[in-house]
Amino acid sequence: MSLMLKANPNPNPNPNENAKKTQIVDLGNGSSVVYVPKFLAYDVAWEFFNYLDNHIPWTRPTLRVFGRSCLQPRDTCYVASAGLPDLIYSGYQPHAHSWDDFPLLKDILDAVHKMLPGSTFNSLLLNRYKGGNDYVGWHSDDEKLYGATPEIASVSFGCERDFFLKKKSCKSPQERSDEKPPSKRFKKSSQDQHNFTLKHGSLLGTGYPCLAQTPICDHPCMMHQ
Ligand SMILES: O=C(O)CCC(=O)C(=O)O
Ligand SMILES: [Fe+2]
């Protein structure tokens, strides 16, 4: 399960411990990602997992990808601050729930803001992968709503899963390639690919400008799954 973004105001009794293990990975071209493997204490993260698993109004929508209808291969739920433009991807417009409906999500958001000083996240896409067959296909988080240089924070819960980032080919379609099975989606030996194993309770931040030596980020040119 992952939150594309924000948990407990004091998730770890010793915040310095988190910071020490933080990794900043240079992707080249001025882009960096930050990875905090122990963003949330192990037991706290399991409490969050159980809450989210049981209390989020998960849905599994039908998407329209390359002219075909297909069931999104994961459950989802969307939370957004009031006044944001609608999120629409692959012909689907999720209902925007209010942060006020889920106080725990606000706690996660506060913790992310503390870990990434200067960040101000305003929407959250929750994804639940029910087993090894659920996945997210190659895509860029480049919806207009996110602006020219999207900043994304992802908090993961449950089983470890691989997360891949690669440079986007300019000719590739912008749509998510959710309909392709994982085996056909990527050759792991490809150059310019970066792999992260997202641990239970970890935080991954992309497109976060102050991570780069110069405040440049090219997340719009990156895609991931
Ligand atoms: O679940 C994840 O870690 C990634 C999900 C994702 O990339 C997305 O919803 O845009
Ligand atoms: Fe994404």
UniProtKB/TrEMBL annotation:
<feature type="region of interest" description="Disordered">
    <location>
        <begin position="1"/>
        <end position="21"/>
    </location>
</feature>
<protein>
    <recommendedName>
        <fullName>Fe2OG dioxygenase domain-containing protein</fullName>
    </recommendedName>
</protein>
<dbReference type="Pfam" id="PF13532">
    <property type="entry name" value="2OG-FeII_Oxy_2"/>
</dbReference>
<dbReference type="InterPro" id="IPR027450">
    <property type="entry name" value="AlkB-like"/>
</dbReference>
<comment type="similarity">
    <text>Belongs to the alkB family.</text>
</comment>
<feature type="domain" description="Fe2OG dioxygenase">
    <location>
        <begin position="120"/>
        <end position="225"/>
    </location>
</feature>
<dbReference type="InterPro" id="IPR037151">
    <property type="entry name" value="AlkB-like_sf"/>
</dbReference>
<dbReference type="InterPro" id="IPR005123">
    <property type="entry name" value="Oxoglu/Fe-dep_dioxygenase_dom"/>
</dbReference>
<feature type="compositionally biased region" description="Basic and acidic residues">
    <location>
        <begin position="173"/>
        <end position="182"/>
    </location>
</feature>
<feature type="region of interest" description="Disordered">
    <location>
        <begin position="170"/>
        <end position="193"/>
    </location>
</feature>
<dbReference type="InterPro" id="IPR032852">
    <property type="entry name" value="ALKBH2"/>
</dbReference>
